[in-house]
What we know:
Layout: H1 26-33, E1 36-37, E2 44-45, H2 51-65, E3 70-76, H3 82-96, E4 101-106, H4 109-125, E5 134-139, E6 142-144, E7 150-155, E8 184-188, H5 196-206, E9 214-219, H6 227-236, E10 243-247, H7 267-276, H8 280-293, H9 298-304, H10 309-314, H11 323-331, E11 338-345, E12 348-353, E13 359-361, E14 371-376, E15 387-393, E16 399-405, H12 409-422, E17 427-430, H13 439-445, E18 455-459, E19 466-470, H14 479-493, H15 501-508, E20 510-511, E21 519-520, H16 527-543
Parallel strand pairs: 3-9, 3-10, 4-7, 4-8, 8-9, 14-17
Antiparallel strand pairs: 1-2, 5-6, 6-7, 11-12, 11-13, 13-16, 14-15, 15-16, 18-19, 20-21
Helix pairs in contact: 2-3, 11-15, 12-13, 14-16, 15-16
The structure holds adenosine-5'-triphosphate and magnesium ion (MG).
Magnesium ion binds near residues 83 and 188.
Amino acid sequence: MALDLLGLNPKPKAPPKRRLTVPTDFLKYAPKYGWVQDKKTSLWGRFHPNKHQLKLYHEIRRQQELELPVLIIILKARRLGITTLVQQYFLHQGQVRPGIGTLLVVQDQKTQGAVHDDMLRRTFRHLPEALQADTRESNRGRLVLPNESTFVVQVATGADLTKSNTRRERAPSQRGGRGPGYQQMHGSEVAFWVDAEATMLAVSQTVQPVPGTIMILESTANGRAGYFFDMWQATVAGENAYVPMFFTWCEDDGCRMTPPVDFQRSAEDDDLAGRYSLDDEQLYWRRWMTANKCNRDSEKFRQEYPLTADEAFLTTGNCWFDTNNLQAYLDRSPDPLFVGDLSLEHNKVRLSEHSYGPLRIYKHPVPGKQYAIGADVGEGTTTGAFSCAQVVDRDTLEQCAVWHGRLHPDLFGHMLCLLGLHYNMALLAPERNGPGIATLPKIIADGYPYNRLYKYKRLDRETGEDNLVPGWQTTPHGTRRILCSNGRAAIRDMQVALYDRTTLSEMQKFVDPGDGNPRGAPGAFDDSVMAYMIAITVAKERLLDYDE
Ligand SMILES: Nc1ncnc2c1ncn2[C@@H]1O[C@H](COP(=O)(O)OP(=O)(O)OP(=O)(O)O)[C@@H](O)[C@H]1O
Ligand SMILES: [Mg+2]
């Protein structure tokens, strides 16, 4: 080739740079630019959304078309592709809407790495070069696109955030500082976050509830307690603007397996087939998954692969009480006969009805019958634990009434006197330790008959004799264990009539963390449970002919 030393021949022009853009329609974008690992083959390839993913996508679009901020909470079975859809959709939005911020909050660092490497980096590696992310501005947990859209992956570490200096990699928490503001937020496996409430409080401040923003929270269930459970319940009850979506496994074509020729349905299979129209391939898949992926634990399977939203939350794995029996009690729990409060007028107890009153009566007192009242005493502050009194029939242990509210411990003592008076001078067993220290003197000062107070046997170390002291003493490794064991047996045997939904719902969140001290799960109250267990325990002692 001749040298053009004088520069007489014009240089061939470089072809004009073509501005690359991706389709604004996600359904056109996904199969052309999306990048996912196929569930069945484990091979990476273009993204063809499945049935569940399309359903979620259309809900996002529905809210957007109504010009609403998109707010969705998802309860799901495992491995249906929900996380993938949200992430791929957010990636697409990041490409078509320059400069938007996306926050992805995950439950642990392993997932953070996976999301960042597999979802963000891999997807971008498979885009045309002009669309790839600017790796100089990207690091672990952060990715910047050429159009300035940013993706941040953080771990919901809750309280630990205060100890960390690597704030950028972690979810903003109450104390951990707030991000600059995001247009898209994806909370993944929220039920498994540490201190989800604090994390969500901070995160939700960074996403304005205006058209164009999206907040999607999704999770598999993790028991009937905690932020995700409460949020789901509130959403289903219509108490917030989120839209609840439930995704079950039986609508997924991947959840099937050809059964062996000698496959036979069990009675449970027949029942499920009848109720949910499951065929043999689905029943066999369920059986196989229970045996091979859920440690042969059918409760575990139901939690991971629920057929209904209720079933998802039914198991807590470590609930102290029999969860099936609790659900059976709840299914047939009646409305109270009376809701209101009680007061003293002209030396008589007067009931006044009002719908939000603390007293719920399921059985009115019957003349001649004997009753026992167990009471758990709270501090009476506006945000602290509740005080609760449970009235049970001393012969049958039937639950007759529940008083559940916040009162100063001494005023609660006065209320207990009224309740005792109303129930034929019931045997009264208020907790004497903790805040209960102020309740008992008030009961005595109010003149409640001393012989109608439950007496706790306390060993006098000097004389070696038992002293009888009024009230119920809860000791962590002594009487508390007796209470819990009595409570568990009552629910297991289902011999007692139990009606109150608050009590039952607290029981569903009463867990055994494995330290021999069952209690309300983090964030859950257990005052109704404790009061109920005291009531049936002291009533039982009389049946066993203990002294009073
Ligand atoms: N449309 C699709 N076609 C094939 N495979 C898919 C599709 N969408 C997602 N997958 C794959 O299915 C698997 C599960 O997807 P994903 O993690 O999104 O599900 P999930 O519902 O969030 O489940 P998990 O309970 O595991 O969080 C992943 O390996 C993913 O790559
Ligand atoms: Mg997921």
